[in-house]
Each structure stands twice: as C-alpha cells, then as structure tokens.
Write a structure and sequence with these properties.
EC 1.1.1.1; 29% helix; Quinone Oxidoreductase, Chain A, domain 1; GroES-like_sf; 349 residues; alpha/beta; Rossmann fold; oxidoreductase; 12 helices; globular; seven-stranded mixed beta sheet; Alcohol dehydrogenase; metal-binding
Length: 349
C-alpha cells in the first residue's frame, strides 16, 4: 500500500510503497477514507513524542471502512464505516472498564505508538472497545476530526470543565482544536470568546459561533504580553470568563488564560507543550482556580458528540478549508512547523 513515511525526525517525509498491514488478534485493518492534518502530527514528526520510532507513518484522525478482522472481534463486520478516538484503550484495565480509556496506562495511538492513518490502510487495536460506528449519513469531512480535535474539545468542555449554557468561555488559539471548542461551546449555549494572532482564524471563529474575538498580535505584530491578553479578553467579554481553554501549548498563552479567569474558574489545557512550562500558579492558588487536562475521549462517550453532529447543532465539516493528497501531505507536515493555515486540512489517501 501507499503511505507517508517519516525516515528522520524533522526531515520531509516521502510517499512510499510499504507492506499492507495484517489485523492483529482483537484488532482490525481499516481502508482509510479520509484522515486529518493535526498539530499533534507535527509533534511526532519533530521528535517531541518518545513513543514514536522510525521509520514511521503519521496520522491519528480518520474515518474508514473495516477491511479485515482479527481473531476475536465481534462488534463490527467487514464493510462497516467507523471512526475511532486517537487514544485507544486496552479494554481490560480498570480505567477502560470505568469508561476512561483516554488515560489507559496500556493505551495505543495510531500515528504515535504504531503506524498511523496517512496511508491507504491502518490498524486499530482492541477494536471492540475503540471503534465508533458512524453509518453512511455523515460526510467524511464531518467525521475525520471527531477522532482528536472535536473529541478532545468536547470532553474538555463537558466532561472536564462542566461548561453550562450562558457561561463565558475564552478559547486561546483558534487552530483546529480551538475552533472546535468555539463551535462546541456555541452549540451548548455558552458564550465563546476567541483569541488568536491570525485574522483568518478569528474570521472563522466569528463565522462559527464566537460571540467576540480578540486579536492578540499587538502593535508590533509579535504578540501581547500575557497580562495584556488577559485584559483584552476581559474587555471583550465584559467580564472575566468562568472557563478558559488553551489550545496552543505555549507558556505565555496559558498564563493569559489563568490571568483572565474568574475566581473559582476552570481552565482546560489542551495544547501540548514542547517543553515543561512555568505558569502563573500563585493566581491558581489565591483564586482557587481549577486546572484541568483534556487528552482525548473514550469511544463510550461519543454518542453525545455524534448527536450534536447529526442534529446539525455542530458542523465540523464547515471548518474544512483544504483537501489534499498523500503527496501534498508531505509538504503540509513540514509547513505546519512554520505557519498554521486557518481551518482544517484533511487528506484523501
């Protein structure tokens, strides 16, 4: 089969012919219909993830059809159209049995722990526990990002922060996961404030549910200091938000979120850091702020998210601004370290 292969961290990958995978016991092989280009893919490409070994096929957001069943799989049949969370639980441990597969100590992640979905086929392990049937009614563009960006944002806002209708939530960083959080917050009846340095990203946020936007570039275009970003958020919202989301993985933007947050507020950290941050912890202590991580979502929690997509309250497909081939994905992965395009890019193998 054809796949994008990373031979050296940080060096442009190539599309190569590689052996087609076999379904392991308890797992399946999927024919990939579409897959996503996500900032987490760049972390793997750059060598930031210790689970990645070379050579390596990236890709962890996908929709596809079951092509082959491993021994013991009973929940799906060949031909079923499915997606899967990017964090896949073992299905056996106490965390998985409690419905918290996203923190399974024996988790696997396509595109990280093993070859991913930037290919014509991909292996999914513990299939009975991790596959999510999506039927034939939803376009691929509506399903691809449910594996990572929308699932992570949905769990962060609902399962972690407990976001309620009418609350103000500031979302810092309007790439794919940030825009997902804006759309989900609006669908839940909250009031999202979108923050970014890219006018195109802010325009997308406005078009997809942001009540207000904050351009944090500053006069010199290099970005405001955290306290100034926090002040701008409060001014735009007319109050301190009760929930903040950081979707970039930068120390300065996390500090801005913590400085803007209302007393007893809840901060959701989704962005991944390249290096351990030093944060505004004195305010976390003095204002009794809750700092919450969100790292994907278990397959068991997908029905609520899919209900929003099926009834039209949430339209992930509206964020797709570019569809590319495997060959084009090689350049797009390198480009992701240099700049971020507004919206979501998907790959059609």
């Amino acid at each position: 089969m054809r796949a994008v292969v990373i031979e050296q961290f940080g060096q442009r990958p190539e599309v190569r012919e590689v052996p087609a995978p076999l379904a392991p016991p308890g797992g399946v092989v999927l024919d990939v219909e579409a897959t996503g280009l996500c900032r987490s893919d760049h972390h793997a490409f750059a060598g930031h993830d210790g689970d990645v070994t070379l050579p390596h096929v990236p890709g962890h957001e996908l929709v596809g059809r079951v092509a082959a069943l491993g021994e013991g799989v009973t929940s799906v049949r060949v031909g079923d159209r499915v997606t899967t969370p990017f964090v896949e639980g073992c299905g056996r441990c106490r965390w998985c049995r409690a419905g918290a597969s996203q923190i399974c100590p024996d988790q696997t992640q396509p595109g990280f722990t093993h070859d991913g979905s930037w290919a014509e086929q991909v292996v999914i392990r513990a299939a009975d526990h991790n596959l999510v049937p999506v039927g034939e009614d939803l376009p691929a563009e509506a399903v691809v990002t449910l594996g990572c960006r929308f699932a992570t944002a949905y769990r962060g806002l609902t399962g972690r922060a407990g976001l309620r209708a009418g609350e103000t939530v500031a979302v810092i960083g309007c790439g794919g996961v940030g825009l997902s959080a804006v759309m989900i917050a609006a669908a839940l009846g909250a009031r999202p404030i979108a923050v970014d340095i890219d006018p195109g990203a802010l325009a997308l946020a406005r078009a997809h549910g942001a009540a207000e936007t904050v351009d944090s570039r500053g006069a010199d275009g290099r970005g405001l200091e955290p306290a100034a970003v926090a002040d701008a958020i409060i001014a735009a919202a007319g109050e301190r938000p009760t929930v903040t989301v950081e979707a970039l993985g930068r120390e300065a933007t996390t500090d801005a979120a913590l400085l803007a947050l209302a007393p007893l507020g809840r901060h959701v950290q989704i962005g991944l850091y390249a290096a351990p941050p030093r944060l505004a912890m004195p305010r976390v202590i003095s204002q009794e702020l809750a700092v919450l991580g969100s790292h994907g979502m278990a397959a068991a929690d997908y029905p609520g998210l899919l209900d929003l997509v099926r009834d039209g309250s949430l339209r992930p497909q509206d964020l797709v601004t570019r569809t590319i081939s495997l060959e084009e994905a090689c350049d797009a992965l390198v480009e992701l370290g240099e700049r971020t395009r507004p919206g979501v890019t998907i790959i059609r193998p």
